Amino acid sequence: MPTSEDAIALWAGVTDVTPVHAEPPHGDRLINCRTHGTVAANSARCLLPRSGEVMILGYRSSHSMDMIHGLAITIAVCSAGCGLAAEILETRIARLPAAMAADWQAYLARSRAAAEHNQERLAAEIAAAGWGRAIRAPSGGDFKPRSDTPPNWYCNGEGATLIATVLSFQTPAGGWSKHTGYSRGQRQPGMQWSSQSEPGRRSHYLGTIDNGATTRELRFLAQAWAATGRDDCRVAVSRGLDYLLAAQFPSGGWPQVYPLEGGYHDNITFNDDAMTNVLELLQDIIAEKSPFRCVEPDRRARIVAAVKRGIACVLASQIKVRGVKAVWCSQHDPLSFAAVPGRAYEPAALSGVESARLLRFLMRLPRPSPEVVACIESGLAWLEAAKVTGLIQVTHGGRTTLFPPIFGAGLLGTVL
User: Fold this and answer.
1) Mean pLDDT computed over 290-310
2) CA torsion, points 111, 279, 94, 13, in degrees to nearest 10?
3) Do the beta carbons of residue 75 and residue 6 sit within 8 Å?
4) Of 55, 117, 184, 336, which is the most buried if we count CB atoms within 10 A?
5) Are 329 and 82 in contact (CB under 8 A)?
6) How far lies 302's CA from each of 27, 39, 233, 278, 367, in Å?
């Protein structure tokens, strides 16, 4: 199990993190950050650090509370304005070398143009319909199409209806939103493409890779294209792939939402396997797996370059713990690759589940470089060292909860 010395010290200004030898009251361990002083956590709270300091979210102590709060020690580094994601700001880009700054300025201009295209298209539809404002898109669960559907299913009936619906909700920029109620039928002119914001308010998730969005629609339409030969499916897949290529940061990562909408959405996003889903999809195209054998050679060449940049981003983002490469955070800064927080309950911390999926992607690469092999080996070593066993799994009312191995808990559920 990691110790409190295993701090993530990536953010600018945190040059080193070392343990303090003196023990505070109640057995709580202190961390000394040489450039920003000392912070500590106790069983009741965590101190909110200033920019660049280290925040202890879990710890080891001699008390029973350790069993709940200290199952794994998590230490986070806060970016400027703790709790706020690092946005891509013009002032930060201006400090980059000229060539890099030019790439980022072009990226931001492309993002703004895509956002304006979305808005102008919706405004034109509203005006043509004579409405005062847009209609909200229906809300639904995550889109999870089956991959083993027989080809004839796509040709008529339910399959053809779903194809038409998915096509209708592709944004003008080429992506899809999440939690769209496809079972409610096709998008109508003047209807928003996203169900995640009220009509008249700023768009939200208007093109995203969160929760499998866009990548699943692309896989579904590629299967439909292979099964039916429909040209509208081919065009939609091509537009969707171009959307993913346009959304990639110059630094190689992908934001959660594109066009950019600000906040933590603008970070390199491994959370919920967002970027990993994109890399897996693009790698399947490179490998010419079904149903992507018909992707055009020029677009495939661009995809090869995008995956190469994506893997370089993954390697650059791998967090070092006490000088040893470990795993990844759910979000990373797109300029510095530093671990950054997302929402209030998503601190900058080592993430097991997203890292495991990312490592699996790297392990499936056909000819991994020595750098990729080293990345995999160090990541697997961290997962092995950090694993927690002996928890009690209890399912009640459809919800599964893990408990520490307290006396008698084995009677309540399954020991993992």
Assistant:
1) 95
2) 130
3) yes
4) 55
5) no
6) 55, 47, 20, 14, 19
Q: Which candidate, 317, 405, 412, places its Cα nearest to that of 64?
A: 405
Quick one: tokens of 57? Answer: 């979210």
Cα–Cα dist 319/334, whole Å: 14
Long-range contacts of 230-239 (CB under 8 A, 24+ apart): 230/163, 232/167, 233/163, 233/167, 234/294, 236/167, 236/170, 237/295, 238/295, 238/296, 238/299, 239/170, 239/174
- Look up tokens 């808990």; give the residue: 409
DSSP 208: B
Q: What is the rounded CA–CA span in Å between residue 219 and residue 221?
A: 6
Q: Verify cis geometry, omega within 30 degrees of 0, for the bond prior to 291.
A: yes
Q: Which residue is it, tokens 């956002």? A: 115
Nearest by Cα to 263 from 251, 275, 255, 253? 255
Phi and psi torsions of 371, nearest 5°: -65, -40
- Sign of the torsion formed by the C-alpha atoms of 291, 309, 260 and 126: negative
CA angle 233, 158, 218 (to 5 degrees): 30
Rounded distance between C-alpha atoms, residue 88 and residue 108, angstroms: 9
pLDDT tens digits for range 209-234: 999 999 999 999 999 999 999 999 99
Half-sphere exposure of 263 (CA within 13 A, CB side): 10
The residues annotated as belonging to the active site are 211, 343
Count how many residues are written for the chain. 416
Q: How confident is the model at residue 260 (pLDDT cuts 50, 70, 90)?
A: very high
Q: How far is 366 from 24, CA to CA, in rounded Å?
A: 51
The answer to whether residues 219 and 241 touch, using CB atoms and an 8 Å cutoff, is no
Residues 6+ apart with CB under 8 A from 194: 137, 177, 180, 203, 204, 205, 206
Q: What pTM was estimated for this model as a whole? A: 0.79
